[in-house]
Amino acid sequence: MADITRRLGWRHLRGAPTAHIRHHRSGKLVHDGPGLSFWFRSLSAALSEVPVDDRELAMTFHARTADFQDVAVQATVTYRVSDPAVAAARLDFSIDPDTGVWRGAPLEQLGTLLTETAQQHALDVLARTPLSAALVDGVTSVRERVAAGLAAEPRLPATGIEIVAVRVVALRPEPEVERALRTPAREQIQQEADRATYERRAVAVERERTIAENELASKIELARREEQLVEQRGTNTRREAEESAAADKVLADAEATRTVRLAEAEAEAAREVGEARAQAQAAWLRVHADAGVDGVATLRAHAAAQFAENLPQIDSVTISPDVLTGLLARLGAGDRA
What we know:
Helices cover 61% and strands 21% of the residues. The chain has helices spanning 84-90, 106-126, 131-152, 155-158, 175-290, 293-310, 321-336; strands at 3-7, 10-14, 19-25, 28-34, 37-40, 45-51, 55-64, 70-81, 161-173. The strands form 3 sheets. Strands 1-2-5 form a 3-stranded antiparallel beta sheet, with no helix packed on it. Strands 4-3-6 form a 3-stranded antiparallel beta sheet, with helices on one face. The relative contact order is 0.06. The model has no long low-confidence stretch (mean pLDDT 84).
């Protein structure tokens, strides 16, 4: 929008570099160009402001495919005014000399023209395309057809409009149809996810089985080694017993040998002692045999003395009447003899 200021009965207009200003005074073109700045009188001036920058026009419209399915098309058309004089002559770009505001709605008219033209070509191509094909290749085909249709539209150059670019943002079916179309893909994705889950579980089970087998193999190996250890311990114990038995046998043999030798020595000593005693007894007997009456009395006295020495200590002697009677009888018999 042009910037207009008031000074007494005059007006000053300052335009933007992207706005083409056309100033007519009394039917004559006085100023014509972008980014102008000049003074004018409002009563005799006719002003037009035509934007010459690139404009984006977003449009959304509905179409029907060959299989009678409704789809929504979202597109954006970039355009510019290539001939401001022609555009100002075909559309109302006049502005109020006091405020600088457009008197009409030229950009809305351009938007309606471009939208209807683009929609016509989009409907033409979608009406011959099934929904499945439209969802796959519809964006490209609609964009190419709309761009070609706008480029071939004779009214746009006659209005001074140039198409810069055409973009189709989206082509979507109705929500119910879209959900129905998403269902197989979602089910397939879910199946893939389930298969991946099952495969992951199978891998986990296989790994657990491998771990269990390894643990079992380790236990078997440990049991085998324990068995070897038990066998080795038994062998060692048996060997120790054998060695102990052998040592005991050696000790027993040595003890038996020592005992035999000791017994032989004792027997030899006993034999010598017996012989000595026998010799002493024989000598004793010979002495008895050779001794007379006096010698016999002496030997008896000596024997009585030895007997008295070998008797135990006697504190008291009890003589019964029978014993005393017998002793007295013997003493009386001795006296008579």
